[in-house]
Amino acid sequence: MRYLLDTNVISDLIRDGSGLAAQRLAIVGEDQVCTSNIVALELRFGAAKKRHPTLTAKIDAVLETIPVLAFEQPADEAYAVLRSGLERAGTPLGAHDYLIAAHALSEGMVLVTANEREFRRVPDLIIENWLR
Fold first, then answer.
1. What is the DSSP letter of 32?
2. 37-50 and 53-65 are packed helices; what angle lies between their axes, rounded to 10 degrees?
3. Which one, out of 10, 35, 57, 120, has a CA that is 20 to 30 A from the CA of 45?
4. Contact (CB, 8 A) for 112 and 4
5. In the chain, what are the domains?
6. Would you give the DSSP letter of residue 114?
7. 8 Å CB contact between 93 and 127
8. Burial environment of residue 36 by CB neighbours within 10 A (0 to 12, 13 to 18, 19 or more)
9. Which ranges constitute the DSSP H helices of 17-115?
């Protein structure tokens, strides 16, 4: 099983290299994880907004060790189906969360996130929370 790490999980890895996310990563193995370029842009935006060069360097270091997958076909198709279905049901997600969920679904990956409440609305998405 491969795991796509969400923004809050990578943030935890950056904050605490021996914390809960790091412990679980050691169990599943670094070769079983990746992230989305959508997550990378969220992390980089946060650092740019804070104007924090040390944080930027830490983000760079983590993203050099974790493969970052490009959002491309068939993720775009999964996004269209997912968003239209959730909006029709009146249970929308945040803009980036649609993209991250669609990316995980299209790749058949488990999404690792602490944002369970949001992502539990996504049909067929398997999630794990490594921060509790």
1. G
2. 160
3. 120
4. yes
5. 3-128 (3.40.50.1010)
6. S
7. no
8. buried
9. 20-28, 37-50, 53-65, 75-89, 95-107
Shortest CA distance to 101 belongs to which of 36, 40, 41?
36
pLDDT per residue rounded down to tens, the chain (132 residues):
799 999 999 999 999 989 999 999 999 999 999 999 999 999 999 999 999 899 999 999 999 999 999 999 999 999 999 999 999 999 999 999 999 999 999 999 999 999 999 999 999 999 999 999
What is the token pair recorded at 31? 């070769």
Q: How many residues does the chain have?
A: 132
The pTM (predicted TM-score) of the whole model is 0.95
Which among 81, 92, 40 has a CA at the least distance from the CA of 64? 40
